[in-house]
Amino acid sequence: MPWPKGKTHPSARLNDRDFIAMYEDLARGPAYIARTTKTALSSVKRRRQHLEQKLGRAIQAKGPWAKPRGEFGAALAPGRIQLKLYDGVVLVASDAHYWPGDISTAHRAFVRFCRRMRPKIVVMNGDVLDGSTISRHAPIGWESRPSLIQEIEACQERLGEIVKASPGAQYVWPLGNHDARFESRIAAVAPEYAKVKGVHLSDHFGAEWQPCWSCFVNDDVVVKHRFKSGIHAPHNNTMWAGRSIVTGHLHSLKVQPISDYNGTRWGVDTGTLADPYGKQFSDYTEDNPRSWRSGFAILTFKDGRLLWPEVCHVVEPGLVDFRGELIEV
User: Fold this and answer.
1) φ, ψ dihedrals at 90, nearest 5°
2) Is the CB of residue 116 less than 8 Å from the CB of residue 247?
3) In this structure, what are the phi and psi dihedrals at residue 260, rounded to the nearest 5 degrees?
4) With bands split at pLDDT 50, 70 and 90, how would you rate the model's confidence at 56?
């Protein structure tokens, strides 16, 4: 789209990085840029659109005047968190199913990676809570399960370790189907408590953790607990989503690239932060073999672009592999 005659192009005064920083990071917005660079407001907005097309992501002003925007100005869907990351790391773990007295190898590794990689964003991608005593499945025999408060306290302790290891990060928690058991149980038996503090699981996880259904990073990467099912879910997820998508739920830990005329995008399954043969799953799986893998995903962004996603995989108790290195945790 050509620039209007007689109007000054903002790039005469700001390079792309400074323009984006002033638009987003400094929370100034288009009017401030137009005023300080003596540029037409329409030109500033057009440049923003040009850069959004170039980078494949939205450029969003902050502040009370800014309306939530999705890709290229679309309205933000309910339950969606929109984040921007130009350079940095996002750590994504899922399906922790935290159990009292049980700290898994993958969790210890995740905390270490939080310290080592200094992520800008940390995502616990659903099923932090197991909720064994509020399951819709009947108990098998006289199996022993921890109480709900014991599970919640275990979640609080593990989440606190993650926050302590990654100061300054943004913390996001897309709801998982096991997490939903907490509120579903209350809603079923005591709907009149709907807005009372404490009836939501988020009330117990700390203010740092932002609950949502999905988290979009730079508009072209989606992190949510689940979408498609089955062994081909990572492939089908990104085919149907039309962008890179990071999910949990299936405990499989894998990266599936998809390439077409639009380039390459990825379907990522973040595995499980729990031990696949842990106590959480011991009864209803009936000691069957499980094609599950314990670990988590590492997403690296450079110049606003997602690089090839990586995974950290648990080899055996106390040992993980990452980038060709065996790491004791």
Assistant:
1) -115, 125
2) no
3) -150, -160
4) low
List pLDDT tens digits, range 121-175.
999 999 999 887 887 666 666 667 888 999 999 999 999 999 999 999 999 999 9
Strand ranges (DSSP E) for 34-190?
80-83, 88-93, 121-124, 170-174
- Token pair listed for 199: 């009836």
CB-CB contact of 102 with 273 (8 Å)? no
Two tokens, residue 327: 């790491």
Residue in 44, 219, 215, 186 with CA at minimum distance from that of residue 126: 215
The string of DSSP letters for 148-179 reads: HHHHHHHHHHHHHHHHHHSTT-EEEEE--TTT
312: left (phi over 0), alpha (psi -120 to 50) or beta: beta
CATH number of the 80-328 domain:
3.60.21.10
Burial 64-76 (b: 16+ CB within 10 A, else e): eeeeebeeeeeee
Q: Which residues are CB-contacts of 155 (< 8 A; sequence separation ≥ 6)?
A: 96, 98, 128, 129, 204, 205
Q: Is 146 helix (H, G, I), strand (E, B) or coil?
A: coil
Radius of gyration, alpha carbons of the chain? 22
Which structure tokens are listed for 39? 């540029």
By the 8 A CB rule, do 301 and 153 touch? no
Instruction: Label each residue of 172-227 as H, E or C.
Output: EEECCCCCHHHHHHHHHHCHHHCCCCCCCCHHHHCCCEEEECEEEECCCEEEECCC
Instruction: Note whether 244 and 267 are within 8 A (CB).
Output: yes
Residue 45 CB burial class (10 angstroms; 0-12, 13-18, ≥19): middle
C-alpha closest to that of 143 among 276, 291, 292, 286: 286
127, burial (CB in 10 Å: exposed 0-12, middle 13-18, buried 19+): buried
Q: Which two tokens stand for residue 236?
A: 């089908």
CA distances from 296 to 17, 93, 303 (A): 31, 5, 23
Helix axes 29-37, 41-55, angle to 10 degrees: 120
